[in-house]
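Input record, target 12 of the design panel.
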């Protein structure tokens, strides 16, 4: 299973905010730090704000900020917020055209696998991903007067 860029970028935005000074940053700085499109990040940040994970403000001193403690934001919550299709096989999705759907055991096996996958993500938090603050800040250009300062 592979997540969309939308979900991947959401995770990157939140990770950036977790290690950024004041847990705040601009969309431009985040895009620059991760070498990704600012236009795409605008859409991602809007989704994160709609979900109550970040807040945004305009003007001088504005930007994007974490709303909650990173230890309370699970990876499962992030993925469920940003993704809408977890049909790793057709029979888990809304349209079922498979000729053996309902008489084969694949649906049950993949449903259990998906439950186990989310159990792991629900047990991991944004705080868990940022256990190397200094390394992350360096990789994102947040040390020494680079982006975000």
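The sequence produced for target 12 reads:
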């Amino acid at each position: 299973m592979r997540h969309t860029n939308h979900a991947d970028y959401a995770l990157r935005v939140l990770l950036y905010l977790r290690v950024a000074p004041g847990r705040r940053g601009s969309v431009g700085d985040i895009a620059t730090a991760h070498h990704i499109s600012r236009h795409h990040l605008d859409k991602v940040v809007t989704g994160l704000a709609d979900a109550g994970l970040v807040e945004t403000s305009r003007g001088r001193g504005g930007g994007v900020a974490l709303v909650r403690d990173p230890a309370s934001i699970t990876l499962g919550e992030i993925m469920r917020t940003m993704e809408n299709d977890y049909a790793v096989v057709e029979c888990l999705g809304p349209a079922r055209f498979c000729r053996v759907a309902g008489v084969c055991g694949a649906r049950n096996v993949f449903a259990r696998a998906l439950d186990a996958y989310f159990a792991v993500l629900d047990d991991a938090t944004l705080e868990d991903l940022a256990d190397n603050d200094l390394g992350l800040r360096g990789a994102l250009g947040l040390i020494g007067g680079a982006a975000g300062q």
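The mean pLDDT is 87.
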